[in-house]
Amino acid sequence: MELPSLISSLSLINDQRSDKNKRYPLPLLLLIAFCASISKHDSWYTMQDYAQAHESSLRELYKRLFGEELEHVTPTHDTINRALQVIPHQVFKRAYQDWIAALLRWDEETRQICIDGKTMRGVKKLSPDTESHVVSAYGPHLQLVLSVDAVPIKRNELDSIRRLLDELDVTDALISLDALGCQRQVAEQVLEVGGHYLLQVKSNQPTLLQELEDSFPRTNKGFTLNKEEDLGHGRIEKRQMKSLVLSPEMLEDSYAFKDWAGIKSIHQLTRKRYDKRSGKETIELSYYISSVEDSKRVFRAIRDHWKIENQLHYMLDVYLGEDGWSKRAGETPKNMELLAKIDLFILQRLKSKLGKSIPRVQMLLAKLNPLQLFDLEL
After folding, report:
1. Residues 131 and 151 sit within 8 Å (Cβ to Cβ)
2. One of this protein's Pfam families, by short name (predicted)?
3. CA-closest candidate to residue 335, choices 36, 81, 9
4. Residue 301's closest CA among 70, 112, 116?
5. pLDDT tens string 123-141
6. pTM summary value
């Protein structure tokens, strides 16, 4: 498994936790939390049970990773809890970023970074001041979270977006954002750091939305057209996108487009969904602006942007139970959330390799000891 380098990098944390005069290095406690959580032992009590059940395997794995013999390897649930509270999230995050840097294999033609936020619902209810709204930068083709930033409430999400753009290498990447990120300052920042933008436009930009609606008459003349049809889950969905590359003259005559740095194309996406069971049809119109001219790339990127919802946020809730968490003290929510994303990445890789569903993969992993987990080939 490709995790040893991530765990080893945390050896720079020299702090230790103790219970009943026994001392445990933080990398060991994080190692226990990882091995236990990916095997569906996600409470402090079951993590303690996991460590006790696999004491010899953990001892041998720790020696392999760090070259040190452990005196004690069976911490209490309180010790594991305290460890996740005190591990500095920024240190954990930097270790994570160093780890994934070795995994990145970009396809330059499809290089896309989706940025969107998700609130850990249970954590928010317990403590309104906890940084429970986590904004993720996600590579949909890699199924990999590139970085995260946490804020107390969704209203602060724009600040997180701008911080992520500053810390990531987005050179030549297409940055896709929903309407909350559709801001002129964001578009300018994306261009400044060497990327391209694809922004959904809604009513929070009323003047821009109005000009988009005015620009797309019913006729298809003069527009590039992309179409796609899907059948699944008892419904038929047809997507059709009209695209228009803006000429210098069109920009000069516009009343909203010219205010957006680097804007090169505008897009109207029509989604028609037909439910075969109910016989009902729904039609939805969406509008986008982009700094790229390639309509096929934009069409594909709009579809791929939803992977941050379907392949990340949805799975964190359904398979890792994130919305039910009540972990709220110190750095725990942010550290556990990042740990869950590591778990999900590995689960998805094993799902593809083994041809099994994620619940079946989780059942398989629950039968393995820590040494066997780290010997898996992803």
Report:
1. yes
2. DDE_Tnp_1
3. 81
4. 112
5. 765 566 677 789 999 999 8
6. 0.89
